[in-house]
Amino acid sequence: MGKRFTDTDKWANRPWFRKLSPTAKLLWLYMCDSCDVAGVIDLDLDMVSFLIGCNVTDSHLGELSKQMETLDCGKLWIVDFVDFQYGNLSPDCRPHTKVISLLKGYTKGIHTLFDRVKDKDKEEDKDKDKEEEGTKSVAKRFTKPTVEQVAAYCEERGNGIDAEGFVAYYERNGWVTGKASTPMKSWKAAVIVFEKDKRNSQPSLPTQTLEQRYTPTQNAEA
Q: What's the average model confidence in pLDDT over 181-207?
C-alpha cells in the first residue's frame, strides 16, 4: 500500500477546507488517497458514494473546483498535489521520472504544472528583490544624532570636540559632506574628520634641529 504526505493543517488553518460540506470533505480525502502519483483521478461518483457512504453529487464536486482542473481526457487533476508531495520535479530524480512521464501524457497537466513552477520562481525572485531593496533602503537611511549622542561619542574618543557646535554646523549645511555635498551616511565618521581637522589646525610647537639640540650653548662653554 502506498504512503503519501497529508496536510494536517487543513482542519484548522485552511479556510477553503473548513467551508466545505461534510460530504465534500470526504470526497476530497478520497481523491487525495485514490489519485495516481501525478494527482490525476478518473472519478466515478457512484463508486465514491458507495465507498464513503454518502450520496456524492456534482455540486459536491463543484465545491472543490478551485483545487482541481479537468484535463482534456475528462480526468480530474489535483493541481497542488505534485508540489505538495514532491516539490519541484527533476528529471534527474528517479522517483520523479514516473510523475513527469504521466503528466506528459496530459498536455494541459504538464503545461499547467510548468507554468505554476515558473510563476512560483518569479514570485520567489520578486520577494528576494524586495528583500534586497529593503536592505539597501535601510542601509541608506540616515538618522541625525542628538547633541547628547555626539557628546558621548566625543567623550569616548577624548577629542574635545564641541558637540553642540558639531550638530549646529551640520544642521546649517543640511547634513551633507564634502565639496560634492554628498548626503551624510555616518555622523561618527564626520566626528573623526572633525578630529583630524582640529588636530591639523592647531599650531605646532617649535622644534629644535639636531644641530641645535646637540650644540653646546655659550653658557655651557663658559
A: 77
Helix spans in the chain (H): 10-13, 15-18, 22-34, 45-52, 58-62, 81-86, 94-104, 107-140, 147-157, 163-173, 187-201, 210-214, 218-221
Q: Please state, in angstroms and as integers, the Cα–Cα distance from residue 77 to each residue in 70, 107, 113, 114, following that order.
A: 6, 12, 11, 14
- 36 and 116 inside one domain: yes
Query: Do 78 and 171 fall within a single domain?
Result: no
**Short-list 185, 8, 36, CA closest to 100:** 36
Question: 3 phi and psi, to 5 degrees?
Answer: -120, 145
Q: Is residue 207 part of a domain?
A: no
For the chain, how many structural domains are there in total? 2
pLDDT exceeds 90 at position 89: no
Q: Which domain holds residue 189?
A: 147-198
